[in-house]
Amino acid sequence: MKRYFVTGIGTEVGKTVASAILTQALAADYWKPVQAGELNNSDQLTVKGLVDNNTSVFHPESYRLNQPMSPHAAAERDGIEIDLSLIKAPKTNNHLIIEGAGGLLVPLNSKDTILDLIETLDVEVILVSRHYLGSINHTLMSIDVLKQRNISIKGILFNGNENKDTETIISKMSDVKVLGRIDELDVVNKSRIHSVAEELKNNLI
Q1: Active-site residue among 2, 32, 48, 111?
Q2: How confident is the model over 141-187, as pLDDT tens digits?
Q3: Among this protein's residues, is 48 annotated catalytic?
Q4: What would the CATH number be for the domain defined by 3-203?
Q5: So where are the chain's domains?
Q6: pTM higher than 0.90, yes or no?
């Protein structure tokens, strides 16, 4: 069974929509280890509302933090410290999509980052990249950091309308497979998620 950790080159690059598409494509389980803020409108609830299958199980977060901040700061406001050893992947016989928070070096506490969590979970990474000025640099740096830790990268998933110059140079310089693209969605609903999931499905196995 596949276990993919969905991380991004930064915040607001579309990890949650990408996670919904991947969950739908594989009829996978979904898990977000750390949710910071928006507890009544969490990423898990968003993904659950977009997935259209009877197989996926949505596993509870290890940490539910009240403030929409970096996990380390949100935890501090709640009077706790995130303990990496307490974040255990849920047991399942199904594929599992794991959604991270922010980018790779987002701190969970004073010493551990999302990157450390990925390494601890021993899972393969799908990197979500979105086109903006500086995104080439952020994408290549993220890939370089993953390679330095010998973390397996399943591939890059571009989110947004096509930019051939950017996508070509990232693919060439990183030597990482491009899984596909999520074109800009004017409407995000179950039907659109299902359609994109069908297009990407064969690249995920």
Answers
A1: 32
A2: 999 999 999 999 999 999 999 999 999 999 999 999 999 999 988 88
A3: no
A4: 3.40.50.300
A5: 3-203
A6: yes
